[in-house]
Automatic annotation (TrEMBL):
Highest taxon above the source species: Bacteria
Residue stretches of biased makeup (Basic and acidic residues): 547-557, 569-587, 597-608
Pfam families registered for this protein in UniProt: DbpA, DEAD, Helicase_C
Keywords: ATP-binding, Helicase, Hydrolase, Nucleotide-binding
Region (Disordered): 519-674
Residues annotated as domain Helicase ATP-binding: 25-201
Residues covered by the Helicase C-terminal domain: 231-373
Protein name: ATP-dependent RNA helicase DeaD
Family of the protein in this entry: Belongs to the DEAD box helicase family.
Species, as recorded: Litoreibacter ponti
């Protein structure tokens, strides 16, 4: 191992390397392409940092002046890329490394200036790195190694085309290292296309998935899922916990619910901006927030310190997502808990997820309110504050309290103050409360027959209340009800038979007239015919049978058929006189017709327009003359064709002179209509 890297590990407190770190630094793998599968949180970032050390530095201990990048590290999310940048920065700090990042959501101009100044290692997300390559902002000619971190997640997020473009632009002499929690067929195909003689590295920790994580499956009633999550958070009281949801709406709902219950909570979802995400993660790191509610996509790649509890508020869609969620805890040798909230109807799905992930979970109920209170008492008595001596500054107050109050009063006041700081637990219903309970044995009984059956549309839903009303029974006094074709059979508890017969009376009939008969023994239903389908009711739509008729040619008509609505005018003999009916004799359609006398109808003066007296109406025809008495107009000079003032001339068209207007004459505007 290169000395600067060894010194950096010693300062960080690394006494031994993790299995994946030991595997990738083996001498026989130096300079080869690697396909590494290791669980989340196994130290993969430091592992590929050590693996590319000899490729970047050779035998030197210091980097030369930064120019074109020597290594590219590609991560699926912004948070993971920035986290990888921080890890590699302290690992290569003593070697004088210059780091740069190209991630979405950041100012692209600042990234371009950083690349122009030079960098040894560039950490980027696929989309932003492709933009820089296409814009010519980054030079990949000197790249010696390309690392794909969380390659399976990048393919799940749809970055295949971007990754193929980046790998095709990098030099062919580079090393390609693929790190992935799982190696599906898509990852194997990508490795086959862009790696040369890659060495497959599988750590021993992969054989026992998440050995440091305690998986717990908690069965709850469907309506108590949110209350169960609150009790889980209160029961474990982890310094940092993350609650996973499937949708943004569920994230917003739980965030509001937890905030109202007094939890210090932040949310991570796709609708947040980069600044909001950074503030939320920083609040979790510095302890201002204790619970993070997030979706799968928004939480990919984040690393929260001291994360001891992962709660699956909603079951994931596949076992890979279950492993990625749970892998947020139990890192670097620390223990963690992964709690699955499983409604009764989703138990089979939870079992399939655990089986696909190859992990074993302990099944049980969610913590009840009594369990949470008992755990609070354990933490109260285990608090190291009880063993600390009284300081000088506290002695005066302690003396005043003991003089004024009794020990019982002091203890009660402390218990109240302790519980006020905590959120009250929720009361949960039994996890199987929604499931139908098995009915106990009915006991001794007597069978009765009722003279209505399936042919009479008899059904238990109306036969049961009819028996209860007529026989003074309850539903618990009635056992089995068997509906047959012509009769129905009812089982009644033996202690209630006498009261039942007394209530029916001598006629032994129900309210609707059905007759009830007591049987000496239970009927043998095996000898009775099995019920068939009910007969089809008559009525409804019936299709008429199709009758095919022989072809008969139609005779050509001698004359066109008369139109409907109006009869054709009758033929009249030659020389006959047709009586004319004036318009007033017609049937009125709207208003009645006015009967005007012929003398009242004066013919209008149908003079030609050109023969009207002169005035404002211009002459149209050249040979028309004004009538007597009209004042003739003076002829106006011809217009100047070069005059385009106050006129719009379309481009490319010649100017036409204004008719009857002289040069410079102001055009007359038309009066607006009123």
């Amino acid at each position: 191992m290169i000395q600067p890297l060894s010194d950096a590990l010693a300062e960080r407190g690394y006494e031994t390397l993790t299995p994946v770190q030991t595997a990738v630094t083996a001498p026989e793998l130096e300079g080869r392409d690697l396909l590494v599968s290791a669980q989340t949180g196994s130290g993969k970032t430091v592992a590929f940092g050590l693996a590319i050390g000899t490729t970047l530095l050779d035998d030197a201990t210091q980097f030369e002046r930064a120019a074109a990048p020597l290594a590219l590290v590609i991560a699926p999310t912004r948070e993971l890329a920035l986290q990888v940048k921080r890890e590699l920065a302290w690992l290569y700090a003593k070697a004088g490394v210059v780091m740069a990042s190209c991630v979405g959501g950041m100012d692209m101009r600042d990234e371009r200036r950083a690349l122009e100044r030079g960098a040894h290692i560039v950490v980027a997300t696929p989309g932003r790195l492709r933009d820089h390559i296409q814009r010519g902002s980054i030079d990949l000619s000197q790249a010696r190694a390309v690392v794909l971190d969380e390659a399976d997640e990048m393919l799940d997020l749809g970055f295949r085309e971007d990754l193929e473009f980046i790998l095709s632009e990098a030099p062919e002499t580079r090393r390609t290292l693929l790190f992935s929690a799982t190696v599906p067929a898509a990852i194997a195909k990508l490795a086959q296309s862009y790696q040369k003689d890659a060495a497959r590295v599988t750590t021993t920790a992969e054989k026992s998935q998440h050995a440091d994580i305690d998986y717990r499956a908690m069965a709850v009633a469907p309506r108590d899922a949110e209350n169960a999550i609150i009790n889980v958070l209160r029961y474990f009281e982890a310094p940092t916990a993350i609650v996973f949801c499937n949708t943004r709406a569920m994230v917003n709902r739980l965030t509001t619910r937890f905030s109202n219950r007094g939890f210090s909570v932040v949310a991570l979802s796709g609708e947040l901006t980069q600044n909001e995400r950074s503030h939320a993660l920083q609040a979790m790191r510095d302890g201002r927030a204790r619970v993070c509610v997030a979706t799968d996509v928004a939480a990919r790649g984040i690393d929260l310190p001291n994360l001891e509890l992962v709660v699956h508020a909603e079951l994931p869609n596949n076992h890979e997502t279950l492993l990625h969620r749970s892998g947020r805890t139990g890192r670097a040798g620390r223990k963690g808990t992964s709690a699955m909230i499983v409604p009764a109807k989703l138990r089979r799905k939870a079992e399939r997820l655990l089986q696909g992930a190859k992990v074993k979970a302990s099944w049980g109920d969610a913590p009840s309110a009594d369990d949470v209170n008992a755990r609070d008492e354990e933490r109260l008595f285990a608090d190291p504050v009880w063993s600390e001596p009284v300081s000088d500054g506290e002695a005066g107050l302690v003396g005043k309290l003991t003089d004024r109050f009794t020990p019982e009063q002091l203890a009660a006041a402390y218990a109240r103050l302790f519980r006020q700081r905590q959120s009250a637990p929720e009361d949960l219903a039994p996890s199987g409360s929604d499931a139908p309970k098995p009915r106990p044995a009915f006991g001794e009984s007597v069978w009765f027959s009722v003279s209505v059956g399936r042919k009479d549309n008899a059904e238990p839903r109306w036969l049961l209340p009819a028996l209860c009303r007529a026989g003074d029974l309850t539903k618990d006094d009635i056992g089995a009800i068997r509906i047959q074709q012509n009769a129905s059979f009812v089982e009644i508890a033996k202690p209630r038979v006498d009261g039942f017969l007394k209530a029916l009376g001598t006629d032994m009939k129900l309210d609707d007239g059905a007759r009830v008969t007591r049987l000496e023994q239970a009927p043998d239903f095996s000898t009775m015919p099995r019920p068939g389908k009910p007969p089809r009711k008559e009525g409804g739509f019936k299709k008429k049978p199709y009758e095919k008729k022989a072809y008969e040619p139609r005779e050509a008509p001698d004359a066109p058929a008369p139109k409907s609505g109006k009869a054709i005018s009758e033929t009249r003999p030659e020389g006959a006189v047709t009586e004319h009916k004036p318009s007033g004799d017609r049937k009125p359609k709207g208003k009645p017709a006015h009967n005007k006398k012929p003398s009242d109808q004066k013919p209008k003066d149908q003079k030609a327009r050109a023969q009207k007296p002169g005035g404002k109406t211009p002459f149209v025809k050249g040979d028309a003359k004004p009538s007597q008495g009209g004042k003739p107009k003076r002829p106006r000079p011809a217009g100047n064709p070069n005059d385009t003032s106050k006129r719009f001339v379309p481009p490319g068209k010649s100017v036409k002179p204004r008719v009857g207007k002289g040069a410079g004459a102001t055009p007359k505007r038309a009066k607006p209509k009123r």
